[in-house]
User: Fold these one by one.
Assistant:
Number 1:
Amino acid sequence: MFETLTDRLGGILEKLTKRGALSESDVNEAMREVRRALLEADVALDVVKSFTDRVRVRAVGAEVLRSVTPGQMLIKIVHDELIKTLGSDAQAIDLDAPAPVAILMVGLQGSGKTTSTAKIARRLTERMKRKVLMASLDTRRPAAMEQLAVLGEQNGIATLPIVTGQQPVQIAKRAMEAARLGGFDVVLLDTAGRTTVDEALMAEVADVKKQVSPHEVLLVADALTGQDAVNTARAFEERVGITGIVLTRVDGDGRGGAALSMRHATGKPIKLLGTGEKADALEDFDPARVAGRILG
Ligand code: GDP
């Protein structure tokens, strides 16, 4: 196993037995370790830089409390700044709009979009007691539509009947009408993905967004794809506009750096974490927990 950042900082700073203020050279030495640990955790370089700059400003000259060692003091500053960067509080999905509330799910193919759509539908049904309708707008991949229908059946969530030959905007319109007629509270629209961000994908998603005016546009991104996920998030934010992020495959990402980069790159909150393939493997995003994981 890697030596954790907490261990490393403790190691560097334990020789400073003197209590008092953190000196510039102590802090600089510690920042080199923080930088290395964040890069190893797959945090984007520009994020690492602005993060360590902020910590440095707060740490140099900071008075070390009597009850802690300089190492513990610095770890606390790093921890606090991590939470600030990740977003200080957990953000739930916002359903505060007239029904039916549309939620648009966007992202690349294979990011876990369809799985996350079903997970969210299940959560809104079970925990929030909402009546949820799911619809797949993936007109290029009939298998994706089928997959959503199967997930709907398995989890007891209604899905919009598949009609072949319709375009995504038409399907989205039909879903909203069906939701109004059927008294649904929430409509989850699972858009098509591509293997890379391209203009056709963005134009399609933008058209659907215009049609349904969704209350939430959730970008689904795979934590294991690191910097690619960050670039994808930035592209969707710029071209379509998102309201939040669902970070998937967090179960395989022991380092937790993607969350930090995503938040920094888009300014948008991470709302949920996908933690496995099963329909209930979805967690609320908890900044303190992710900060704890990055620190080790
Ligand atoms: P889509 O193409 O974006 O709709 O991706 P899918 O929802 O079909 O997911 C692709 C694969 O990733 C499937 O095998 C899912 O079971 C798996 N998957 C989705 N989310 C997670 C997650 O949070 N953790 C793990 N381990 N697997 C996931």
Number 2:
Amino acid sequence: TSNRMWGGRFAAGPDAIMEAINASIGFDQRLAAQDIAGSRAHAAMLAATGIISDSDAEAIREGLLTILSEIEAGEFAFSTALEDIHMNVEARLKDLIGDPAGRLHTGRSRNDQVATDFRLWVRDQIDAATEGLRALIGALLTQAEAGADWVMPGFTHLQTAQPVTWGHHMMAYVEMFSRDLSRFTDARVRMNESPLGAAALAGTSFPIDREMTAKALGFDRPMANSLDAVSDRDFALEFLAHASICAMHLSRFAEELVIWSSAQFRFVTLSDRFSTGSSIMPQKKNPDAAELIRAKIGRIFGANVALMTVMKGLPLAYSKDMQEDKEQVFDAADNLMLALAAMTGMVGDMTANREALRAAASAGFSTATDLADWLVRELGLPFREAHHVTGALVALAEKKGCDLPDLSLSELQTGHEGITQEVYSVLGVDNSVASRVSYGGTSGERVREQVARWKEQLA
Ligand code: ARG
């Protein structure tokens, strides 16, 4: 038998394989709430403009509400033969209310319908990502405030570079995640326009009111070009691009937590709630949540590449290729939200091991730059010469198997005879971080200012 919705010109029904490749109901049933919201807005507008009667609109409204509660209760029988969520809902509406159901699709096409549903869904995810990021930033601020002056090694090339503070390191991620947050906020502004009423591609001859449906669905305005409205998925790509950047940030932080929680580093202890054991090695406590967060970028950026590749080269307007947009975005969104929530939980629960951080900060000649700076400041050496003198003293300490503050004054003076007892004040890690008071620097003082600034900004 031919299709109930578009079978007029067809004598035969589809091959089973055709049905299998064509149907999207297996995944686009996630758009049910958005689809019903869009249809309700459309029906109300059709009545307000006199295109359908008030009584038909009322029957449609009640029918759609019944369908929504059936779906929410898990009582709705989704049918693959009916292809997608749009036709499943409309067919059920016909069962429930009869003829008025057939008037709902006046001045509308599945092309503007799906574009509308999907925009509404992506908009919700943007809001969820924004909330997830706010929670994560909150957890980072708490860590930063508690450890504003705790000393730890700062690295470049993963080699000890200079001492920094725990708070400063946490606040670096606050900056990154807040840029992610602002990217999502920007994207929302750009994408919040309504495709509804673009119809198949050219608009419609019915006297529809697109402002009215746009407003009812929380959009700022209708999209200005009907071809564009049904053709582009740039809003989904923008979500995926921003999700990818955010997942990349999460991945870097997760990598640090994996390293920091190892026995070799012991910088942090992750809570039992966010760790797992081994089935064979009883001593193990593994940072699985961090590892999975580190990995999520794979599927999220994969989705970005997949959808970009689907969209490239598509002629205007709608092509069925675009049905492939949803699973990528669903999967990326689900995993981004999960990663954000897991990271927030881990950060909230983790304990920084102050002693281990401090010991590591003091090792590896981390105050060599402070020594060089002291030679410049106190003895007037050109920086390049100070660098050379300090390098020689590091080599001496390395040969002796000790650190810079462990060298005696006479040993230090083999580097430069002008060195005095005073120099020891800059060789300690606490003085080192406390001295870095330039704007954006690592001192506890600057960190506390930034914590206060962000708290105020997010309030
Ligand atoms: N299931 C389709 C999709 O996801 C809905 C739009 C179908 N439009 C059409 N002209 N066949 O894109």
